[in-house]
Structure formats: structure tokens, C-alpha cells
Amino acid sequence: MIALGLADRYEKGSLLWWNADYTHYQVFQKIPDYDYYLFIEYDAWVLGGVRKLMDRVVGSGAETVTLVRRDMKNWFWAKFCQDLYPGESCRASLNCITIHSRAALAFLFEKRKEMSRRKDISFWPLSEAVILSELVPAGFRCECLSEFGDISRYEWFPPVLEDDLDFRAGAEMAFIHPVLDRSRYIKSLLLHTHFVKDYFWPGSSLRRELSRFPGAVRPSEIGRAALARGVARVVERVRGY
Question: Cis peptide before 178, with omega less than 30 degrees from 0?
Fold first, then answer.
């Protein structure tokens, strides 16, 4: 991906966590002759079937489909992207499931390469800010994922246990994220539960969920997870992100 002219830059996490769209351009470069491209992260689920979803998207004429964030005033990363996307020009999306037409994907690929050549970008924008902030002003027809199915269980947290899903055929279209097996589900709860007190309060959602798996997590593991989460929150306050 770096060899394609994409910048080796990220502000948090890792290169491909921060720039999740990089993988889309690698696919496009290798197989450039599709009309539409559908990208689904490993922990996302399309209930009702991908074929039904794509029939609806193609029939709608949409050029990009993703979950549009409506609460930009409360979106944490907006303030960091103001140099590149000031004011209302900053648009964001949750991109665990993303669909692009060939033209939209080609446009974004060129924009990302142009961005990568610039030396004046102090804060490298994450992919969630790039896609709609570039496509909408350029006139591409961008639709929200909610136009095509239920999004009530489509967020970054809390996770959904894979065993709890109904995989029967004929289900209504819905989008679910993150869907995890038991070990990853428990790991996500321990890693991302927001308030440190919830690790110790017996009535918290974390403790209720962990009670579903007797013996799977030792008290010492809960204590270490609470300490790690507390340290992470302090670091976030000091750094600002």
C-alpha cells in the first residue's frame, strides 16, 4: 500500500486501523474492472444476505453507501480534522461495511495519493473523515447504510456475541457490528468498557455479561483490565486523543 503512493502516517492505533480505506485502494489497483465494490470488515455481519443488499444498492443508483454520522458536533475526531476539512465540510462515517462504485473508489484513491504528497497536513485524517468529506463536495451520490436496513446493532461498542445471532434464511436486512466469538467478545468487553467502576460494580453491564461465562475470567484478570483501562483514559486525557 505504501508502494501505491499512500502515506505511511497515522495518529493512533496502526496504519491500517487508522487508514482502513487503504485496503480498498489495494483491491481496486489489483482488480479495477468491477462496477461496484463491497467491503465488509471481518467482524461485521449483513443479515439478510449480501446479494439482496447489492441488488438494492445498485437499483438505488447510489455511488457510495456507508453509515453517515449525523452527530458531527459530538464526533470526537472532528476537531482534529478542521485544518483539512473546516466547519461543516467535515463529514464522517462508520465504515465497517462500505460500498463504492468504481468511479467513487477511483476518485478517493487519487485524492488519498494527492493528500499523501502534501507536507502541510499536521494531523493525518482517519478514514472515517476522508470518505464523505471528499465525495460529497465532488457531487457523488452518497447514501446512508440505514436506507437499506436496520442499524440498531451497528456501532463500534458494545460487541454482539456470535452465538446470539439468528442466522435463519429470510431474515429482514440488518447490519451488525462488531460480531465476535466468545473469546474475542470477552476480550472486547474487558478492553473497551468505558468506566473503571463498571469493572467492580456487580450490577454493571460488564459484570452481567461476564456472568454468562462462569470461570472464563478470573478476578485478577478483571482487576488488570480495570487498571489498564484507567491508565488508557489518563493517557487519552493528557494527549487529547
Answer: yes
d(CA 199, CA 193): 8
* Cβ proximity of 83 and 50 under 8 Å: no
Can you state the angle between helices 127-135 and 102-117, rounded to 10 degrees?
Answer: 120
Q: Which helix (H) or strand (E) holds 3?
A: none
- Alpha-carbon distance of 158 to 166, in angstroms, equals 18
d(CA 8, CA 16): 10
Quick check: helix, strand or coil at residue 208? helix
Question: ∠ CA(20), CA(225), CA(222), 5° rounding?
Answer: 135
CA distance 177 to 167: 15
Q: Show me where the domains of the chain are located.
A: 2-150, 182-241
- For residue range 194-228, what is the model confidence (pLDDT) as tens digits? 899 999 999 999 999 999 999 999 999 999 999 99
What pTM was computed for the model? 0.91
Q: CA–CA distance from 127 to each of 104, 149, 156, 171 (Å)? A: 15, 23, 15, 31
Residue 38 grid coordinates: 463491497
The cell for 241 is 486523543
Spatial separation of the C-alpha atoms in residues 6 and 19, rounded to whole Å: 10
Say if strands 174-177 and 45-47 run parallel, antiparallel, or are unpaired. Answer: antiparallel
- Alpha-carbon distances of 80 from 11, 74, 99, 124, 155, rounded to whole Å: 10, 13, 26, 9, 21
